[in-house]
Amino acid sequence: MLPQLEKAVRILAKASKILNRELDLVAEHDADLDVAAPWAAVEEAVPRTAVAGAVATVEALVPEVDGSAEAAGLPAGAGHVGRTAMLGKRGDATLPAMTEETAARQIADAWRRIERWLGAHAPATYAALGPGASDEQIAAVETALGFGMPVELRTLWGLVSGGNVEGSGPWQRNAALLGLDEVVNHYRSQMEAQAEFDAGYEVPGVPGEGDVIVWQPRWIPVFSSSAYDTLYGTYLDAGTGLLWRWTRETYVPPGPDDPQDSLVTYLEGLADALEYPGLSQDRPGLLGGALVWESGAYGDEDWRPVG
User: Residue 187 — φ and ψ, nearest 5°?
Assistant: First the structure.
């Protein structure tokens, strides 16, 4: 399932569960239905804007049936327009200019939401955020790796660096955003390790089924397990535009049913989890004024959830 659609389905499922529970209570007590009351209960956990956004996403990604867009209060044809905008073909070729502009805007919008939340709730993490990289610094990474960076990653790097407090960053699972020098160093290290296996492939340089894979030329390391090591982390495949995990032990490729985020959906999901923690499987919280996700708190009794 596409990451956008999966997130929308989770939101709508939560809203539906609450709504059905409220309607069951009305029926159980044989009370008159106050239409506003069930929706008020929904909005305590799922803001109306999130529900509306989820409906729009489903309408955009799922073919319309019997005028479903109009039934949901969207303009006629919204599904077709949304599908065209959101499912633009991706590949190694340069994205069309409008698609690049849209992707850059989505990255910037999602980051601003994250930044606002950190400023309001996690002062230590917010204070640790560093300035974005310059065009010249990003160009130096492109020269070192030998190919251009996707616009989504260029945009993120241009907005922020750092944000690590005692090794933990504000990203999911308390990952750290790699600095540009670290990106280059890790890429080179992994490609050197991969070179030892390339010659042993049936087709040199092209891994076959069952062959050991350490790294591939179009993978860009983005996040690491912490600011202190790169034992495991997340890379962006410049060919597909999708994120996946790396580990220095055994690389496990994504399976056909494994959901993969783009950088846009990753940041939007992070912003949603901060703003609407009830929708997140990993709750945001604080330790010493720094954002620490529950999965990274390891039962610390001083950890407090936010929201």
Answer: -60, -50
117/278 Cα distance (integer angstroms):
15
Q: Which residue has the higher pLDDT, 149 or 298?
A: 149
* 15-22 long-range contacts, CB within 8 A, separation 24+: 15/42, 15/45, 15/46, 15/51, 15/54, 18/42, 18/45, 18/46
For all residues of the chain together, what is the average pLDDT? 80
DSSP single-letter state for residue 175? -
CA distance 56 to 58: 6
Rounded Cα distance, 252 and 213, in Å: 9
| Best CA proximity match to 8, nearest among 71, 51, 39, 62 | 51
- 25 alpha-carbon distance from chain centroid: 37
Binned at pLDDT 50, 70 and 90, residue 42 comes out as confident
Domain encompassing residue 78: 1-87
Residues 156 and 24 occupy one common structural domain: no
How confident is the model over 53-89, as pLDDT tens digits? 677 677 666 654 444 444 444 333 333 333 333 333 3
Number of separate domains in the chain? 2
* pLDDT top residue among 131 and 9: 131
Task: Note whether 249 and 157 are same-domain residues.
Answer: yes
